[in-house]
Amino acid sequence: MLELRLVQGSLLKKVLESIKDLVNDANFDCSATGFSLQAMDSSHVALVALLLRSEGFEHYRCDRNISMGMNLGNMAKMLKCAGNDDIITIKADDGSDTVTFMFESPTQDKIADFEMKLMDIDSEHLGIPEAEYHAIVRMPSAEFGRICKDLSSIGDTVVISVTKEGVKFSTRGDIGTANIVCRQNTTVDKPEEATVIEMNEAVSLTFALRYLNSFTKASSLSNTVTISLSSELPVVVEYKIAEMGYVRFYLAPKIEEDEEETKP
Amino acid sequence: MLELRLVQGSLLKKVLESIKDLVNDANFDCSATGFSLQAMDSSHVALVALLLRSEGFEHYRCDRNISMGMNLGNMAKMLKCAGNDDIITIKADDGSDTVTFMFESPTQDKIADFEMKLMDIDSEHLGIPEAEYHAIVRMPSAEFGRICKDLSSIGDTVVISVTKEGVKFSTRGDIGTANIVCRQNTTVDKPEEATVIEMNEAVSLTFALRYLNSFTKASSLSNTVTISLSSELPVVVEYKIAEMGYVRFYLAPKIEEDEEETKP
DNA sequence: TACCGATGTC
DNA sequence: GACATCGGTA
């Protein structure tokens, strides 16, 4: 028996909107610790890791560890039917092949339940090691989103270079080149407007903008984003979910090709 | 000679936006009583009835009963050219085959007149008997609209069931099932937020969501909607137009098929 | 199905 | 003026 009551239901709505385009089907894993998901994107290039800790739920009952395979598109459709102020409860009976989403309006005048079929999904639960990163950039999520969107109108890939002074995003395309530099800046009114760079070693890595743009759909979950970079490691783009956990996106860097090869 | 001056022109704009997708061509009937319309939708499944009483107009002159056939799409196009604060005057000379819409901006700085050709339309003016209904639900129009929209992302039809406690909207589709219950609730701040159920007999009827979703385009005309249900009778979905009349939509229930037949 | 543009609201 | 939502297009 599983029953998870999430007062701020809009969080779950936003999580699904942010990952459903990247991953079609995935297993949600539920344990005493929390509600989590880990899945490769459909082209097996990026990885999504979601964690909603049990403490973040108003009521959390999970009798035994359970893995529920869901089609994220269908799940998102159902969650769209919840109001942004609704309380969402996720329910599943032991051994059942369905999950129920219950939506309670703030006034309790309207109570909805949506039942969805579960599916069997081969899960490839990769343990993701906690790594040391050469550089960690924290910046406003809206700004990062804007940069990725802007650069993708010029080129397909972005080079992210971190030095002590700042982080540089560069691209190159048929119509020209673009460089955007964000300087470290902690003298701001609100802490979430800061751009903070922790750096042990300068790094410069190349990524496909297509994926970064998909990641930034999670911007509504948090005002800030954390980008953790190391040479030879996948970048981690993390959006914290207030009081509850995070959504993290992992993306392997492109191996820099010779200039000559990129322009055949 | 016909001359109807409507100070709150936005009402007419909204009326046309709400019915133009359902009905292509229709006769507007003008008499001393008011300005009205009654028409089947293009697939002859639903019926629209509009009444704007003469008292609601600032000036109302209608020398003799007249029926004016209009293409509602074209009429809506013209009305879109009126500002929301404009005063709209509808004019027609006796025996003319055109109608003129005049728009006066609130400041009188701008005066526009649009002339539209009338058309001959076979009208099938069905007398609609005032019936007794088993159950009448009054609820916020926005809420009803949201429910119809949400459910149509899951299924094609909705079962509306009324009991003393509340009204239940249910659907079923490929990805799962959904039930939304609205409880009777009269303890609200504003009367238009109430959900009120008058019930003589429990009813449970099935309707095509496609039509209900079309009806709810009239939600901007009124904060509340009234849904009148009886077994074997078309449902009536009514939006009152402040001080003037109403738009009513009629839709026949679907005859419930056996479970076996719906799942071939 | 995903992206982009336009519209309406706060 | 900015954000969010909705509708249309690719």
TrEMBL record, chains A, B:
Coiled-coil intervals: none
Proliferating cell nuclear antigen PCNA C-terminal domain sequence ranges: 127-254
Keyword DNA-binding applies: yes
Gene3D superfamilies the UniProt entry points to: 3.70.10.10
Keywords, in A-Z order: DNA replication, DNA-binding, Nucleus
InterPro entries per the UniProt record, alphabetical: DNA_clamp_sf, Pr_cel_nuc_antig, Pr_cel_nuc_antig_C, Pr_cel_nuc_antig_CS, Pr_cel_nuc_antig_N
Main subcellular localisation: nucleus
GO biological process, one term: mismatch repair
Domain Proliferating cell nuclear antigen PCNA N-terminal as annotated: residue spans: 1-125
Cellular component, GO annotation: PCNA complex
Compartment(s) where it occurs, according to its Swiss-Prot or TrEMBL record: Nucleus
Keyword Oxidoreductase: no
MF term (GO), any: DNA polymerase processivity factor activity
Family from the record: Belongs to the PCNA family.
Reported function: This protein is an auxiliary protein of DNA polymerase delta and is involved in the control of eukaryotic DNA replication by increasing the polymerase's processivity during elongation of the leading strand.
Protein name according to UniProt: DNA sliding clamp PCNA
Organism, scientific name: Anisodus acutangulus
